[in-house]
Write a structure and sequence with these properties.
The protein folds into two domains: 62 residues, no CATH class; 242 residues, MetI-like (MetI-like fold, Orthogonal Bundle). It is 77% helix and 0% strand. It has 15 helices and no strands. GO terms for molecular function: dipeptide transmembrane transporter activity.
Amino acid sequence: MLLLLGVTLVTFTLTNLVPGDPIAAALGEGAAANPATVQAYVERYGLDDPLPVQYLTYLGNLAHGDLGRSLATGRPVASDLATAVPATIEIAVCAVVVSLLVATALGTVAAHRRNLVTDQVVRVVSLIGLSLPTFWLALVAYDLFFRRLGIAPGSGRLSPSLTPPPTITGLYTVDFMLDGDSVGFVDAAAHLALPVGVLSLFTIGLLTRFIRTSVLEVLDSEYVRAARAKGLGPGRVVVGYVLRGASLPILTVVGIAFGSLLSGTVLVESVFAWPGLGTYAYQAASNLDLPGIMGVGLVVGVIYLVLNLIVDVLYGVLDPRVRLA
């Protein structure tokens, strides 16, 4: 709770320190030149109150579940975030799952083939993934696979000819499956392919290098040598002993990577016109939309808190020593 309070305080302070006129940004130059319009707008949103009063008013409304009304869209911030957050969660979850599966395979193989050709190739591939700018890769992928080859759908979450599914989770692929609409599911999954692929490349590069290091440390441990001495098969040794022993540090990095994907996808979302949290945050910042910025900051803070809690719980599941501590 104290952390979330700190998030709101820091976000509120920094936003109000940014030079610019939020009223002109929200109303436009024409309406901002009309004193009566400006006065009505200021009184409606309480912008004539001192900043401490505005902050306390925001906290009071927040305690009742009211995130305020966006100065840019005119809609409740909670409604905007209810649409934007699931869109970002959908590509972030898919990107993390793909990245973890690929990186686990690459990192484990590289560790077992230490300093051999396979290891060198995997390290080069991971370095390329870390080095390529995400926004550049998104532009190249969009131009190549959509404009030139025509094998991937265009921007957005769904083709214009299809109707979004009934909102259950906010994730189009999941909602289409629950609704039994296979056509919509295939179309939504196809729209996910390019943004997920772009986001996954960087995360694969990060996780592969970290998994390789973690697996190398476990491979030299006594219990792994004992498992091999018992005659256990390579697959059982890797899955039951090596990966489980290396899972705790890997889990931490995965949690951080997932949080970063949720809060830092603005460039990829902009290229693919994906209406997610990153796009909403950019629009709110561009319009000096204080309630919108505050809402995004609060959501990101909650996401990191929940991720840390999940990681701590999984620590106890994977390592009995944590449960005994």
